[in-house]
Amino acid sequence: MKKDIERVLIDEAVIEHRLDSMAKEIEEDFPAGPIIVIILLKGALVFAADLLRRIPRELSIECLNVASYHGGLESSGTVDFLDRHFPEVKGMHVLLLDDILDTGRTLAAVAQRLKQEGAAAVHTGVLLAKDKKRATDVKADYVGFQIGDEFVVGYGLDYKGKYRNLPYVGILKLSAAT
Ligand code: 5GP
Ligand code: MG
Fold first, then answer.
1. pLDDT tens track for 147-166
2. Ligand 1 pocket: which residues have CB below 6 Å?
3. CA of 157 to the centre of ligand 2 (A)
């Protein structure tokens, strides 16, 4: 795995340090009362697991499977909901977590669906946000790191299903992107 990485963009210690402060921001912002965290699989799995263990309050966790990238390097432009059931969010404060904000289509589509389903408020958090023009007018309330418009893997992010378990965020070698 490591041999396929051109360079490390954000190492593990830096990520962990940032998660401490993000968790604090979230903890301070959310009003008292029930919180439901929605994790977008599979990319946000590692980020969410590490972030949520830093938030010392009662919350429930749901996961959603959506597909926008379909395993390649470019966004396909459509967002598919792959689950048969949608979590019950009526009247709840939702924290929606994804790995990365790229075109913004995924976060926009899921946030819109959550509002349709009656969520009282939808807050969004991402580990990474690419510094680029978004396809839709969407922003994340909590952003771990702003990065350039490059394709990254690791810490939950994949290329064709691989590299999610790298403990850092890195740039893939061109030779590994076949
Ligand atoms: P958006 O809908 O914002 O264009 O894309 C969001 C999804 O695209 C993310 O959840 C992620 O799965 C995928 N994605 C976007 N940029 C990257 C990237 O640089 N690396 C990887 N591995 N996935 C990305
Ligand atoms: Mg993905």
1. 999 999 999 999 999 999 99
2. 43, 68-69, 75, 98-106, 151-153, 157-159
3. 6
